[in-house]
Design brief:
By secondary structure, this protein is of the alpha+beta class. The chain is 46% helix and 17% strand. Helix 4 crosses helix 5 (151-190).
């Protein structure tokens, strides 16, 4: 875990983010970078005017490159945090360790998507709906007719069962899409260049591994 302090000042300080504003406290906040999870946690250090993310005052929050971070009248970017952290490295451009962690991010993303879109167990559930729907919707008489095998009851049961199946199918699709959206959003936050936070969404890990470096900031991802 690498920690970057953020506070007021008018001169650059190695390993810290200095903001030149009277509204910013001397030790205003700190950013904690976890290379194992590729996340950055921003924590207010009891500042007078507070730390705001997307308009909300926060005490401690995970942040991404899309967030708007304000301290008094100063806007803070994730890039400033990464630059301060990089200044304390032996090789400021070597991000091979952090990039290697993205392999797990990609693999977990694929696994979660597969699980979210899986239809395991749904066929059994729909079969139960076809048999139980008449008893639930028409009462015990209809249920007994279906159980007895009468043609009329079977027809009613089938119609209601199909209606139930369509309803549950729509609900399942909506819920699946919500889960997939949450997985996608979380993945987009983590699957970025560890140096400049450029989004890597859209291409698999192996694709970027072959590139060996970021096309934007030239951070080294894989050494020759």
């Amino acid at each position: 875990m690498q920690v970057v302090l953020i506070g007021r000042g008018n001169k650059p300080v190695t390993g810290q983010v200095v903001l030149d504003s009277r509204g910013v406290s001397g030790q205003h906040a700190r950013a904690m970078i976890d290379p194992n999870k590729n996340v950055v946690i921003l924590e207010d250090l009891g500042s007078t005017n507070g730390t705001f993310v997307n308009g909300f005052r926060i005490k401690r929050k995970s942040i991404s490159h899309n967030d708007i971070i304000m301290m008094a009248d100063q806007r803070l970017s994730l890039q400033q945090i990464f630059e301060a952290a990089r200044a304390t490295r032996d090789d400021p451009n070597d991000f091979t360790v952090e990039f290697g962690k993205l392999q797990n991010v990609w693999d977990n993303y694929q696994l979660l998507l597969k699980q979210a879109r899986s239809n395991n167990g749904m066929d059994t559930f729909m079969t139960v709906c076809l048999l139980v729907a008449p008893a639930l919707l028409l009462g015990p008489v209809a249920g007994a007719v279906v159980a007895g095998g009468a043609m009329g009851g079977t027809a009613v049961g089938s119609a209601l069962g199909l209606a139930a199946r369509e309803l549950f199918s729509k609900n399942k699709t909506a819920k699946t899409q919500n889960v997939v959206t949450e997985i996608e959003n979380d993945f987009k936050i983590q699957y970025v260049c560890p140096k400049c936070a450029r989004s890597l969404y859209g291409f698999p890990y192996e694709y970027y591994k072959k590139q060996r470096q970021c096309v934007q900031c030239k951070a080294v991802w894989v050494k020759s």
